[in-house]
Each structure stands twice: as C-alpha cells, then as structure tokens.
Amino acid sequence: MGRPPSIDEDEVIARLAKVFSDVGYDGASLAQLAEASGLKKASLYHRFPGGKKQMAEDVLTAALDWIAANVLAPLAGDGPPRERIALAAENLDTFYRGGHRACLLNMLSSPRNEDGPFGKAIREAFEALLAAFAGVARAAGASEADARARAERAVVTMQGSLVLSRGIGSTGPFGRFLDELPDILAAEAGPARSRKVQQP
Amino acid sequence: MGRPPSIDEDEVIARLAKVFSDVGYDGASLAQLAEASGLKKASLYHRFPGGKKQMAEDVLTAALDWIAANVLAPLAGDGPPRERIALAAENLDTFYRGGHRACLLNMLSSPRNEDGPFGKAIREAFEALLAAFAGVARAAGASEADARARAERAVVTMQGSLVLSRGIGSTGPFGRFLDELPDILAAEAGPARSRKVQQP
DNA sequence: GTCTATAATATGATAGAC
DNA sequence: GTCTATCATATTATAGAC
C-alpha cells in the first residue's frame, strides 16, 4: 500500500474551506489551495479527482453538515425556544469565527442561482435555515406568517452583518446580530408588556 | 486623429459593471469584459491603461458617484424624512435592478479590508451610507445612538436581502427590504401610540 | 480609437516515479 | 498517498498596423 495520509481529511477540508471563504471560487487558485492544504497539487487531485469543483463541493457539504448538526438541530430541539436560539447563536459565532469569516453561501453564489455548480445546494441551504428559524419562532408563539417573516429577517441580518463586518473591517455588526437573534426570532415581550425597543 | 469612439464611455462602464457585479473581480476575465463591452481587448486597454484593476476601480467609482447623487443626496435633503427615504428607496431599487443585481461592495470585497485594491473605497462607501442613513434617522427624531443603530440595520438588511435574493433566486427579500426601509430608519409610530408590529 | 496578432505567464489538470 | 515534472489551455497584457 502507499504512504499513510500525511494530513487528516477533515483538516484538509477545513483548510480549503478557509481559502474558498476568503477569496471565493474563482479567486481560489490551485497553487493557493495546495499551499493552504499542505499538499501538492497532484496530491489534492488524488483526494479530489473532480478537481477544484469537487473541492468546493466537498467543502460546502462539510459546512452544511456542520450547520445541520450544530445550528439546525439545536433549533429543532425540545427545550425552551430562547435556549435553543442561544445555543444556535453560540455555534454560529464559532462557525463564522466571530464574524471574521465570510459565508460560503455568499462567496460561492452565482448571479442566477440555476447557473453555477453550487446554486442548488445554496438555495436548499438557505431554505433549510429559513425553515429552522421559522420553526423555533413558531415554537416561541409566532403565527405561521410572522414566523416566516422573522426567519427571513434573521437570515438577512446574518448575511448582511457578515458583509458589513468584512466591508468595514470590524466584527461589530456580526456581534450585534448574534445579540439580537433571540429578539428577532422570539417575541421580545409578553403580550401585555409595553415596548421599550426603538425608543431612545 | 484616430477613429471616433464606437461606444460611449458611460455605456462601457455600465456594461463592465454588470460583469463585475455578476461574477466578481476574479471571476471576470478580459475575454468576458471585452465581449460584454463590445470592444476588443486591446481597445479596452486603450481606454483603461491600468488593465482589469482600473476597469474595476472606474466601475466602482461610477457606482459610488451614482449612489452619492441619487441616494446620499436625497437622504441629506430638506424635505420630510419619510419622503427623502422613499426617494432613496426608489433609486436603490433602480440601482440594484429590483434585487437582480448584486452589490459591488460585496462582490469586490476582500477577506481583510486592508488587502485588496478596493478595500479603502469599500469601507468609505459603507461609512458614507451609514452616515447618510443615520442623518435621516436623526432628522426623523431618533437620538444619536438610535440613529446609528437604525442606519446599521438598514445597511445590513440591504446587503443581506441582496445576498438572500440571489441565493434563493427570488427578489422577494430585497423587495421587502425596500418596503421596510422607512420603518427601519424613521420611528414607526408616534411616542404615545401602541405597537402593532411583531404581533400576528 | 480600434483592430489582429502575439507575447509572457498563470491556471487547471495529468503522467508516472517512489 | 505523495511527489516532481509536464501538458494544454486560458489568462493578462502588449505591439504595431490602419
């Protein structure tokens, strides 16, 4: 048999993920991917016979699996909704490195979803996240329509805060998104309480 | 003298802008840029001696000028705040083609703002937009801190809704952002009115 | 100002030794 | 399974005619 793997597959995927998250699909060259992974180009092709496209696919799949296990699953749990949300927020913070890492769903997106090799996976991932957010909002007492609106607001705010954090070079916006996530998804106050939000 | 310009410069910039918005900086090849602009590669280099980098810079500058004139200026006007916001929203709808076009600030972003040729312009553009939004929120009666929070929420929602619209292949999220923009920036109700939002 | 033709390099990918 | 060496192509960019 050949040599033993010099690097764990999960570690290779993790290193490739950083490159794709940083510079996107087109921006990632094989030279860069080889450098980052610690493998030579030919070794990368041995592990990913489908080439760069497969690398990105496997990276995306691994990311979505992680999100499914650490964000979607907690949101669908059976504890108090706000506790589920807090756990999901904590894991999103880990996933996005506190806002330092861009979202693959944004970095791998193509102009029209249907084109591009990842359009279908990206659309399904967004829809799964929307469904999970809506589910916990529903569990917190929102109507079906309100839950959907809250879920969209959560996804939109997450993506937008990541874009702005990268744009201004500060993780502030993403941090504030995490802080606000519970109130975005679960009604802020009981039915009889007066509001204090949006008033100085 | 040489031949007259076969295509108006503004039109060339507009066509290049579409390419960069669609596929980003790295994704845009000179073959693609030449095809889209209607000029041959050598003619593009005649107009943009700095090459692809200058094309993207000029495209970004033109976009930011348009935004300054059609979004920032209206927001800083002297009419009723909600009218200023309505005009800004209308022009943002035009600029982003109803949500079909991605934001250059997102497509040209680099991992760390400081790297990349456009980081400084992008950061300044975000800050100018934040300042303009905060200004109109302030004019609508918000405190300085509340105005800043509302401005950030507006920028974050705009960027996030564009990302989600592209991701799911529907302009719905961006359309809803435009609808909500007045309430994001200006207090929704007078001080004495009870709330109806976020309750089914 | 635009074009055809071409240069110089980087890219994605493969062959074949160990 | 990893590597060095290489291939074919696409890329950015330039030269020079009109």
Overview of the molecule:
Two copies of one chain form a homodimer. Chain A has 200 residues and is mainly α. Chain A has a domain at 61-185: Tetracycline Repressor, domain 2 (Orthogonal Bundle), CATH 1.10.357.10. Chain A is built from nine helices and no strands. In chain A, α4 (51-75) packs antiparallel against α5 (81-95), α5 (81-95) packs antiparallel against α9 and α7 (119-139) packs across α8. The longest helix of chain A is centred in the first third of the chain and has 25 residues, at 51-75. The first copy, chain A, starts with 8 loop residues before the first helix and ends in a 15-residue tail after the last helix. The model of chain A has no long low-confidence stretch (mean pLDDT 93). The interface between A and B is large, with 51 and 51 residues. Chain A binds a DNA duplex (18 and 18 nucleotides) through residues 1-6, 29-31, 39-43, 45-47, 51-52.
